[in-house]
Amino acid sequence: MDKIVVLDFGSQYSHLICRRIREFSVYAELVPFDISYEELQKHNPKGIIFSGGPSSVYNSDAPVPENKIFEMNLPLLGICYGHQLIVNKYGGKVKRANKEYGSSLLTIDNDKDLLSGVGESVRAWMSHGDEAEEIPPGFQIIGHTESAKAAAIASHEKSVYGIQFHPEVVHTEQGTEILKNFVLKVCGAKQDWTMEGFIDSAVEKISKIDGNVLCGVSGGIDSTVAALLIHKAIGDRLKCVFVNNGLLRLNEETEIETMFKENFNVNFTSINAVDKFLGKLKGVEDPEKKRMIVGEEFINVFTEFAEKNGPFKWLAQGTLYPDVIESGVSKGPADVIKSHHNVGGLPDWLNLEILEPLRELYKDEVRMIAKILKVPEKLFMRHPFPGPGLAVRIIGEVTPTKLQIAKVASKIVEDELVEAGLYGKVWQAYAAVGDDRAVGVVGDERRYGNIVMIRVVDSIDAMTADWTRLPHGILEKMSNRITNEIEDVTWVTYTISSKPPATIEPQ
Questions:
Q1: Which residues does the record give as ATP binding sites (predicted)?
Q2: Domains of the chain, earliest start first
Q3: pLDDT category of residue 348 using cuts at 50, 70 and 90
């Protein structure tokens, strides 16, 4: 199988480069920027991409790849910081410039190879504070913006390219086409990466493990697919445990148990731990502390179950690529955005090894696998739900009142999207609630109640997201129902921040 290797220099978009390339059926893998020449050779890549990153190439501690990597005579594409590395390495000059962040108009000066078929100009996403002052000998400028005269450069002879913008984010028009030009035309990679192939490979690997596996299932697509893959590999050596932590969607605990027992031939146990979780969260307002408490309590419940029903050797989780990168435990020097309860950091006293069969995949890839494994469409088209549940959609302390508001208001939002035929067309939709309150008028009485925030976004893989432009009539119906049907709510707002700079979940 042909492979493109992406060297991670710390950009939050590094994994997204791999995801975009996989969209056109070519396997892409992220590796640390300081990978050795010998180790990189073992990957046998068809081409190499340098990601972006927060560093400046002229700093003494700037991350740089091993020199021999430049001598592999493989096609090379540098993105943002990677672009500046190429400029610096091949004899050009990088200087500090006015920070350019956001959308810029990229004018195409040469449409050969990399920028073929892109058009005369496109909107491109910039995020940098340095730029190429002088391009290296033997290179030419193939694209520029108003602020960056060398926004795209190329040495066609060496098959080395540098671009100052990020083609991997959805904000760059024709970004996937640019990556496709590099991977397919310049590198000549074959399009032979499929989800059917992934299933076969994953099942083969999992079948070789020894011991029993304990899998925490939430009813979401990630943990369900992880469980089905493991069950396909080891059968009855897998035991699935569902923990009702009290932080689920409205009536979800009943729906999940029914779904598993009616659709999947796996060993399934449901545990009611509502009082434990809500008790530990009482009085806690800090979002990171809430995440940690939920994560640790899950481990406590699983450990207790394992001691009574074991022995187990493995704890399986539905961890995905975005979980890994956002937790700062990717292989490159990325900053931590937020922690995830199902990524690494297992306590020393837990005597279980971790099994994460989906760790290399994105959400839409998992949905493809779900379809192949004949998971009911209602499940695999369901919107993502955070591991810590409503604890991250309730801003501040988790109280019974706010918990009920979040459950009922989110159900109203989802129901109205279904009614309008829009549920399957958006990535995620929910209602959040915090401690802010506002005065409303109900009948002839003034009421002081909570403010509910509706959040609906469009995305492909959760690494970037744009707020959904819902028709005003639908928003009006949602607002009217929420304020009429939930006694403690007086105002409803609609969140219009995209990711970046915001995250999809409020906490």
A1: 218-224
A2: 3-185 (3.40.50.880), 195-379 (3.40.50.620), 394-494 (3.30.300.10)
A3: low
> What is the total residue count of the chain?
507
Whether residue 223 is annotated as binding a ligand: the answer is yes
What Cα–Cα distance (Å) separates residue 145 from each residue in 98, 125, 154, 314?
13, 11, 16, 52
Task: Please state the φ and ψ torsions of residue 366, each to the nearest 5 degrees.
Answer: -65, -40
Distance CA 502, CA 286 (A): 18
Q: Write down the pTM of the prediction.
A: 0.71
DSSP code of residue 184: I
CB 134 within 8 A of CB 93: yes
For residue 219, say whether it is annotated as part of any ligand binding site: yes
Contact indicator for 25, 189 with CB cutoff of 8 Å = no
- Give the active site residue among 18, 80, 215, 240: 80
495 marked as binding residue: no
Query: Is 468 labeled as ligand-binding?
Result: no
Catalytic residue among 23, 100, 168, 297: 168
472 is catalytic: no
Within 235-286, where are the H helices? Answer: 252-263, 274-281
Q: Does 297 qualify as catalytic in the annotation?
A: no
Residue 224, annotated as binding a ligand: yes
Tell me the pLDDT tens digit for each residue of 377-417.
Answer: 877 788 989 889 999 999 999 999 999 999 999 999 999 99
395 is in an annotated binding site: no
Residue 41 token pair: 């050779």
Residue in 398, 445, 394 with CA at minimum distance from that of residue 283: 398
Rg (CA), the chain: 25
From CA 36, how far away is CA 41, in angstroms rounded? 9
Q: What is the DSSP string of 387-454?
A: TTGGGGTB-SS--HHHHHHHHHHHHHHHHHHHHTT-GGGSSEEEEEEEEEEEEEEETTEEEEEEEEEE
Assess whether 341 carries a catalytic annotation. Answer: no
More confident residue, 462 or 401: 401
Instruction: Determine the 3-state secondary structure of 293 from DSSP.
Output: helix
pLDDT value of position 16:
85
166, 171, 340, 383: the active-site residue: 166
